[in-house]
Write a structure and sequence with these properties.
32% of the residues are buried. The protein has 17 helices and 20 strands. The protein is elongated. The mean pLDDT is 86. It starts with 8 loop residues before the first strand and ends with a helix. It folds into 3 domains: 132 residues, Alpha-D-Glucose-1,6-Bisphosphate, Chain A, domain 4 (2-Layer Sandwich); 127 residues, Glutaredoxin (3-Layer(aba) Sandwich), CATH 3.40.30; 154 residues, no CATH class. Helix 1 runs antiparallel to helix 3 and helix 9 packs across helix 10. Strand 4 and strand 5 form a beta hairpin. It has 553 residues and is an alpha+beta fold. The strands form 4 sheets. The chain has an 8-stranded antiparallel β-sheet, with helices on both faces. Strands 9-11-10-12-13 form a 5-stranded mixed β-sheet, sandwiched between helices.
């Protein structure tokens, strides 16, 4: 008999509750799994998966082609046709790498006549003793039987207080409050993924259908149909927990709106970040987090053949103990045995409770540790800001008049924020050459100051996923981290957005914007220097040509 080795790796897992009004629903569910097996294996016929052992379980390992099947049943308080616990274990070789194998464990456990607990685990491993190159981990996909179960019309699948959806749901104007209630519900165990529209086209910032397929059974996907819907949901969520227009955000269970540091648990991605990382990588990251690494199972979950055998053994002991036919000596032995079983069961429940407690405490400690690190970083930041403030005081004390030109603003900025902002030669010259420099002195000072404080923090400290939206919210100024598609296709236009800093070519496409019509207009293009944590300004002046302005000239 081939067994699943201890060194196997979890590839996918899920578990949820199945609500039904049909007392024989577990039979229908087993037929669904059998149909999936026949489709997945393709070369099988109905007789290969003989109904007697597949439905009733015999504990034997059946080889059909390259597949090994083993089915166990615990009748429990029900019948052989509709048992309390049923599991099928499937082991088969990888189609591409002959030294890798896969296992699938699917269980149904009747809680009562109207509630069935479903759990599934997919694992893989390399053959024992294999020496050689380890193949790449395959893409994470949801097994077809999960979709088959969710699409059944006779049942409702739930996790906590939420229905497990099989397709993304679109949220329209006026529906945000209901979605907000789902997000903050204390009984929600299902992660929710909110996807907003793309900033630069009519589509969404990521392929929602593809993502939902990969996290099926483990999270629900919601589409925010317009920027107004984003604004509506953000009105309820507040700034720290918002899902800005053009971004994606994953809301884990147990959201704490009154604790701003809890916002760090709920991962978000801006359009720019998705484009830089690639949509495929973002989808893969979310899938791994929700379908492989998430806290899916309870401590009492029936997951393996050993769990079903143990449940069957416990039920048998109960039956023997309740029987009136045994003699007095057997009765006393059974009583002692049952007391031992009850004691072990009590200790197991206590252990399960401790595991839950330790897991919760561990999550709290991790959060507290993250908060302490954040406070330390804040202390360092305050110390640095104090040093900068003293430098600024010296600069302002030495000023005999307020700046009257853009050039003077740039000079003061360089002196005031030496660890935050730096200018290239071209950046300084662009300010000197700007014909409207004297018209926007106040705005220039405010924009550069906000770049040295707010923008620097968002880029290098918080590494904000929605940089553009967050900067706009905090400062009121527009920030663009990229150019339009047509501009990016024009090499002559993109050359205008190249500069040299310390002997290296830099890309100064990102820019902060003020005004759209001269003379009240200013564009500050910059390069975020990750290594030195500096915002390097390469242009501070007129509007650089883009596809639109070039077409008009």
């Amino acid at each position: 008999m081939e067994l699943i080795p201890i060194n196997s790796s979890v590839h996918y897992k899920t578990a949820f509750d199945i609500h039904t009004s049909n007392e024989d629903e577990i039979s229908n569910l087993r037929r669904t799994i059998r149909s999936w097996c026949l489709r997945a294996t393709k070369n099988f016929n109905n007789q290969d998966l003989h109904s007697a052992w597949f439905f009733r379980g015999d504990g034997e390992q059946h080889r059909i082609g390259n597949y090994l099947f083993r089915v166990y049943v615990n009748v429990g308080n029900y019948t052989l046709e509709n048992p309390e616990n049923w599991i099928v274990e499937i082991i088969h070789p990888d189609r591409e790498h002959r030294n890798r194998k896969w296992s699938i464990e699917i269980t149904f456990s009747q809680v009562d006549r109207s509630l069935i607990r479903f759990a599934a685990t997919v694992k893989n491993w390399m053959n024992e003793g294999y020496i050689g190159e380890i193949p790449d981990h395959p893409d994470l996909t949801t097994p077809g039987f999960v979709r088959d179960i969710l699409n059944s019309r006779s049942i409702t699948c739930r996790k906590g207080d939420g229905i497990v959806n099989s397709t993304p749901k679109t949220i329209r104007l006026g529906e945000a409050k209901d979605l907000f209630d789902k997000i903050i519900s204390g009984s929600r165990y299902l992660p929710l993924v909110l996807i907003s529209k793309h900033r630069y086209n009519s589509g969404y910032c990521i392929d929602a259908q593809n993502l939902q397929k990969k996290i099926l059974g483990n999270a629900n996907v919601y589409l925010l149909s317009s920027e107004k819907v984003n604004n509506e949901i953000n009105y309820y969520l507040g700034n720290d927990f918002s899902c800005s227009f053009g971004s994606l955000r994953v809301y884990m269970p147990k959201v704490k709106l009154d604790y701003d540091k809890d916002s760090f648990r709920h991962r978000f991605y801006s359009t720019r970040y998705i484009e830089d990382l690639t949509e495929e990588q973002v989808t893969n990251d979310i899938t791994i987090g929700l379908s492989r690494n998430a806290r899916t199972f309870t401590t009492k979950e029936i997951l393996t053949t050993y769990d079903v055998v143990a449940a069957r053994r416990r039920h048998k002991i109960r039956e023997l103990f309740a029987s009136k036919d045994e003699n007095e000596e057997q009765s006393e032995e059974l009583k002692l045995l049952w007391e031992e079983v009850e004691d072990l069961s009590k200790k197991k429940k206590e252990s399960d409770s401790l595991v839950d407690l330790y897991q919760t405490e561990n999550e709290q400690f991790q959060q507290e540790n993250s908060n302490l690190k954040w406070q330390i970083s804040q202390t360092d930041q305050v110390r640095e800001e104090n040093t900068l403030l003293q430098r600024k005081v010296r600069v302002f004390n030495e000023m005999d008049k307020l700046p009257e030109s853009l050039t003077e603003v740039v000079d003061i900025t360089i002196s005031s924020f030496p660890t935050k902002l730096s200018f290239t030669d071209r950046g300084v010259k662009s300010a000197q050459d700007y014909k409207n420099g004297n018209e926007i002195v106040g705005e220039a000072w405010e924009m550069l100051r906000k770049m040295a404080s707010t923008l620097h923090r968002l880029i290098f400290d918080e590494k904000s996923g929605d940089l553009e939206g967050q900067f706009k919210t905090e400062t009121g100024y527009d920030l663009a981290m990229t150019e339009g598609r047509q501009t990016k296709r024009d090499s002559s236009l993109m050359r205008l957005r190249k500069d040299t800093y310390e002997g290296n070519e830099i890309d100064i496409t990102p820019h902060v914007k003020f005004g759209n019509k001269e003379p009240k207009l200013l564009r500050i293009h910059f390069y975020p220097d990750e290594e030195n944590k500096l915002i390097v300004v390469g242009h501070c002046g007129e509007h650089l040509d883009n596809f639109t302005t070039k077409s008009m000239s």
